[in-house]
């Protein structure tokens, strides 16, 4: 799975291995979509994430990396 975002004039693409996500894979290799992550995976809602990633490549249009971790940003958390 790849996550992407716009950073100025360039696109940031992070290639992620779902097996390292905290929710983990199902035994059949699929990722469990639930009420917490459904809108994110269906591209209906962006999430603000913090990350440290390994830079795999870059050019004038893209920065490509592989994250060492992804964490929901405190700026995105909403109190009800």
Task: Tell me what you see in this structure.
The chain is globular. Helices cover 5% and strands 41% of the residues. A four-stranded mixed β-sheet has the order 1-2-4-3, with no helix packed on it. It starts with a strand and ends in an 8-residue tail after the last strand. The model has no long low-confidence stretch (mean pLDDT 75). The chain is mainly β and 80 residues long. The chain is built from one helix and four strands, in the order ββαββ. The protein has one helix spanning 38-41; strands spanning 2-7, 10-15, 49-58, 62-72. It has one domain.
Domain module tally: 1
Along the chain, the helix and strand elements come as EEHEE
Number of strands: 4
Per the principal axes of the C-alpha atoms, what is the gross shape? Answer: globular
Low-confidence stretches: none
Task: Give the termini distance in whole angstroms.
Answer: 31 Å
Mean pLDDT: 75
Describe the SSE topology.
Blueprint: E1 2-7, E2 10-15, H1 38-41, E3 49-58, E4 62-72
Parallel strand pairs: 2-4
Antiparallel strand pairs: 1-2, 3-4
Quick summary:
With 80 residues, the protein is mainly beta. The protein contains 1 helix and 4 strands, in the order E-E-H-E-E.
Relevant terms:
41% strand, 1 helix, globular, 4-stranded mixed beta sheet, mainly beta, 5% helix, 80 residues
């Amino acid at each position: 799975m790849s996550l992407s975002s716009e950073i100025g004039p360039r696109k940031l693409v992070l290639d992620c291995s779902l097996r390292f996500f905290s929710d983990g894979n199902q035994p059949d290799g699929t990722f469990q979509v639930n009420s917490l992550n459904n809108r994110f995976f269906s591209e209906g809602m962006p999430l603000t994430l913090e990350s440290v990633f390994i830079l795999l490549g870059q050019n004038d249009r893209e920065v490509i990396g592989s994250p060492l971790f992804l964490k929901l940003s405190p700026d995105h958390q909403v109190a009800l």
